[in-house]
Amino acid sequence: MPSQARPRRRTLGSSSLEVCEVCLGTMTMGSMTADEGDCHEILSKYVELGGDFLDCAEMYPVPVQEKWVGRSEEIIGTWLAGRSDRDRLVIATKAAPSEADLTRAQILRACDASLKRLQTTHIDLYQIHWPERWVPKWGESQYVAAKAEAGAHTLEGFDAVVSTMGELLSSGKIKHWGLSNETTFGVCMFVEASRRLGVAPPISIQNDFSLCFRTFESELAEACAPAHCNVSLLAYGVLNGGALSGKYLDGSASPGARFNFVQQLDMGGFQGRYKGEQSNAAIREYAALAQSIGVQPAALAQAWAYSREYMGAVIIGATSVAQLEANWAAAKLELSADTLAKIDEIHVRHRNPNLTD
User: Fold this and answer.
1) Which of 22, 111, 255, 267 has the most CB atoms around it within 10 Å of its CB?
2) What is the extent of the structural domain holding 230?
3) Which InterPro entries does the protein's record reference (predicted)?
4) How much is the pTM?
5) Could you tell me the CATH number of the domain that includes residue 146?
């Protein structure tokens, strides 16, 4: 049985911002968890357990439907309004760009709207949800120049974003800023622009990362290392949309589980990269390894993510208090060197099976 260790606190990037390494993601609040009271119960239990780091986005919940947009922030806002501990919480949210230059006006407008929905005077970590320029994402890995050139993005766009973040920092509306679904090139360009313009640099990058998608470990890990750009990874998708729990392989997934839920919405292709046969083959081996050491497959996947030296926080989701408690417990697992080696052996056999190109 793996030894126990407590969830740790980690400092993000070059900042002094310290967070619990277990970050509660809220992208299902308002959709899969539709009842506001149930969402508030999950949020309160997370804080009771010792958490302080919440992640949201202006477009949440997902999958995106017009009737839901902004609902997750609104739910956090009504919860915050009934509490007196706002200053001990770290609230992160994101602005969603189009694939063209992200303008100052767009960012300022999005930030003000998020502040209103969240019912707060400031956002602790404000992130660009994905690059405004075309980049490979959602399981893609290959840069396609023709797609990039078809967009309206210019290199001056990096300066525009950094300048606007500087304006928001100076106003006190945000305390720090970060990136999401970004590339090595993008990280380096934003950090360099920050240096030139005298703006505090991005402190985090929220990217897809799991046993089935370890692409961060190459160039991005080098760029984000403390000795270089010093940008901490906030990992989403650590459970592959829940697939790494094994519940979709053995038929134990409930009707309300993510992929069953989206099927009911006639959106069965949502996050398809997480559930292809190549990924399922890897998941079977990881599940067998978990069984051999006496832990749940989901716990193995999360514990491995926490073991990564470049990890700032692992973003967990929860549609119930029971699921939250199970995911929280995974942060207490410390995997042995032998188990970590076996994970790498499986990775060699099934390297990044979520890739779609």
Assistant:
1) 22
2) 3-349
3) AKR, AKR_Detox_Biosynth, NAD(P)_OxRdtase_dom_sf, NADP_OxRdtase_dom
4) 0.93
5) 3.20.20.100
